[in-house]
Protein 1
Amino acid sequence: MEAGENQQVKLEINLTEKYIAFDRSKALTPGAISYRKAKLETIEKLKILCDTNSLEVFIDEGKMAFTNTFFFSSPESSVILENKCSGQINYSFWEIRKI
């Protein structure tokens, strides 16, 4: 991954094929596992916490959890949530403010 390239991390939820995956192959994570995938039957409640360099996922009050760090060198960076499920997802977004 070169500085200046479009960098991203992606969290993918697929209930049809029953998995959740985290892909940080397009981020600066030297020596880290770039792709993680886990079997997933259903989701009743999903909580995602994301800041500048980490993403934490808690499924059904912690029955399954992912924690991943990532680093970007480019302002053209993004975190993507890809929903491959049928139905509606309700979410809330909170901005972190400096104290």
Protein 2
Amino acid sequence: MLLVALIMMGTARSNVQHSTFSGLLLSSGQYPKGWQPANTTKKSTKKTTKKITKKTTKKTTKKSTKNTTKKSSKSTTKKSTGATGKKNIIFKVGNLHYRIVGNNTCEVTNLVTSIRDKRVIIPSYVTHNKVKYYVIGIGKGALSREVKMTEVILPPKIQYVGPKAFLESNLETIFLPGNVKVKEWAFKDCKKLRQVIFGGKGWSFSANAFYGCTSLKTIHLNTTKSASSFRFDGANPRVICFKGDKG
């Protein structure tokens, strides 16, 4: 029994000395070459791996986000340019110049050369660089002083006739379709103009649009209003009001 007790006391002393030695090493941070506590190595390895993983993930995410943004912006720019074109660009189709004024829309700006025929037909749309543009207006002074022109056929969806568009031309009759807006002095001094017809329902015109049209006899208006509701500066036509769409 005495022998067993001595052996147990010796074992306990060695354990205490070993734990004291390990504690001193851990607190001082100094270890023998080639030896480190197993738990410390695992923790430091895990922390390092996590840091590297986080940095790599952030860099990859930033790069992919930049590339995606660049690609999407480029594709959007191409689509919008192809669909609408750039405003104020002037191009030629046939004997007319056109200006881009909006998304797939344009207006007539002028004739390329003075017309030879008495009748001028404005198309509903024209194509430029493989893009279709609808003609929605006659620009300022676009067809002014065209003395050979006696008749103009306007597209059915025209929206406006600009200021002085037909100034001092030799038009004899004009049919204005749809919801057209006739701006100031649009037909000023068209001395041979005899008849004007507003065929649509949403039309409007400036009071001086027909100023100086001394031969203007009748203006047909698609309206339920009375003839006395309309004023014409510098002209004295007979106003005929009718109900029903003519164009």
Protein 3
Amino acid sequence: MVVTPLFPPVTLPVTLIVGDYTADVGTLTLDPGETVAHNLADLFRAAADALDRAGDQEVSPDATA
């Protein structure tokens, strides 16, 4: 017997705002019963790891290069 959840997964956009800079950083998809906090923490850990791997690369003021 297959059990169908009462609610489908929910996908939420994630935007980071620092001062006057706004960046769309991804989405979170939450299954029923999952919390935003845990998934958001995972997203930030992944972003921090990516920044660590990027090293000392220069970034232009508008973040395009």
